[in-house]
Amino acid sequence: DAGVIQSPRHEVTEMGQEVTLRCKPISGHNSLFWYRQTMMRGLELLIYFNNNVPIDDSGMPEDRFSAKMPNASFSTLKIQPSEPRDSAVYFCASRPSGGVDTQYFGPGTRLTVL
Amino acid sequence: TQLLEQSPQFLSIQEGENLTVYCNSSSVFSSLQWYRQEPGEGPVLLVTVVTGGEVKKLKRLTFQFGDARKDSSLHITAAQPGDTGLYLCAGPFGSGTYKYIFGTGTRLKVLA
Q1: Are A52 and A85 in contact (CB under 8 A)?
Q2: What pLDDT digit, counting tens, does each position of B7-60 carry?
Q3: Does the structure show a pLDDT above 70 at A21?
Q4: Among the partner residues A45, A48, A108, nearest to B42 by beta-carbon distance
């Protein structure tokens, strides 16, 4: 079975550019999470979707960050405009319904903003 | 604010040695999870402990949840190079069942 798929795996961009990260959750999972991982702050939850609806976006750093989930099989995280401090590894994770307490992480997108 | 402090931060050992890493908090958690993250990959769940004092074994890995549910440990017996990675503990916080706070991590390197 395919796990969580993220693209691109690596992104290098210049400050001020728009960046879009993509995620395809595991089929049948109804919860989706976006995380950011840095050496300084570790792994932080940015936003949580349940049944395609954003439930908690309190972890989104600022208005430059936005996330969408137009259907059950696709989500995007957009940064506009990007800044060097946004450089990090961004992970998408999905979780099945039924109270199962296991999140399945994708391989991540390593973002470098110059 | 709930925090999960892990120690040691870095650990480099020879193949065959035993090791223990720790996850500590001043707060009580209903459960704690342990993940392993290999370079270039996302974290993978190893185990969830839910009862104070609980011990779970996964081959050469032994996980323990503290009696007061404020801390947990991971013991690896006869470490192998394949155990190399970042070990993260995580616990739920907040009113929902989806928010997890992750620990600071222990980066383990096992030398052949």
Answers
A1: no
A2: 999 999 999 999 999 999 999 999 999 999 999 999 999 999 999 999 999 999
A3: yes
A4: A108
Q: How far is B19 from chain A (nearest CA, A)?
A: 23
Mutate one of B99, B101, B104 to test the A interface: name it (highest A CB count within 10 A): B99
Per-residue confidence (pLDDT) for residue A101, from 0 to 100: 80
B3 part of contact set with chain A, CB < 8 Å: no
DSSP structure class, residue A84 = G
Strand (E) positions, B1-112?
A: 5-7, 10-14, 19-24, 32-37, 44-49, 55-58, 61-65, 71-76, 85-92, 100-102, 106-111
Poorest-pLDDT segment among A10-14, A39-43, B92-96: B92-96
Q: Can you tell me the distance from the alpha carbon of A80 to that of B36, in angstroms, rounded to the nearest whole number? A: 32
- Residues of A within an 8 Å Cβ radius of B: 4, 31, 33, 42-45, 48, 50, 55-56, 91, 93, 95, 99, 101-103, 105-108
